[in-house]
Design brief:
This protein is of the alpha/beta class. It has 6 helices and 6 strands, in the order E-H-E-H-E-H-H-H-E-H-E-E.
Length: 190
């Protein structure tokens, strides 16, 4: 079994919110509290491995969980958030106002969507799924600490609508467990 978790709240998660992408923003104090709660949540899961994105907000989360469980997180660059090009670091409300057509395209998603000057959702999905194959080949159960966009591209891979379903579910909560079953079904733990 693989458990997915988005990193704890970062300084970019606001409010107001910034588009982080590859920006290496640390956890907020709330994010560190969320990471400690995540560690408590997964303490009885019998985890054999923790994998993480190299971005500091995910690494900090994974390190807090790993310290509690006595596991050293493994870093995999392919678990990073999408590279969001010239949108990285911009305020979400500014993007909605200043680039309404680009914002509407982003909200639609799809395999052909590419961040301006950045990565496409299809490219992000390809690398994230390759990382997940590596996780599956190692000791299980495993926790994968990554990003909202990374989780979305993973979940969309099993959706009949593919990356057109990128924005389903509407929210990927910080530091909450998403159980990924072998058959592709997933649930967000309470």
């Amino acid at each position: 079994m693989i458990l997915l978790a988005r990193h704890g709240n970062s300084v970019d998660n606001g409010p107001p919110r910034r588009f982080s992408g590859h920006r290496d923003t640390p956890l907020s104090e709330l994010g560190r509290e969320q990471a400690r709660a995540l560690a408590d949540t997964v303490a009885d899961e019998g985890l054999e491995a923790i994998w993480t994105s190299p971005l500091i907000r995910a690494r900090e989360t994974a390190d807090i969980v790993g310290e509690r469980l006595g596991l050293v997180p493994r870093i995999d660059d392919r678990l990073s958030e999408s590279y969001r090009g010239r949108w990285e670091g911009r305020w979400v409300e500014d993007l909605e106002r200043d680039e309404p057509e680009g914002w509407a395209a982003w909200r639609h998603g799809g395999a052909d969507y590419r961040f301006p000057g950045g990565e496409s959702l299809a490219e992000h999905q390809k690398r994230a799924l390759a990382a997940l194959d590596t996780v599956r080949a190692g000791p299980l159960p495993a926790l994968v600490v990554c990003h909202g966009g990374t989780i979305r591209v993973i979940l969309a891979a099993k959706n009949p609508r593919g990356l057109d379903a990128f924005h389903e579910p509407p929210d990927i909560p910080n530091a909450r467990v998403i159980r990924l079953d072998d058959d592709g079904r997933w649930t967000i733990a309470a």
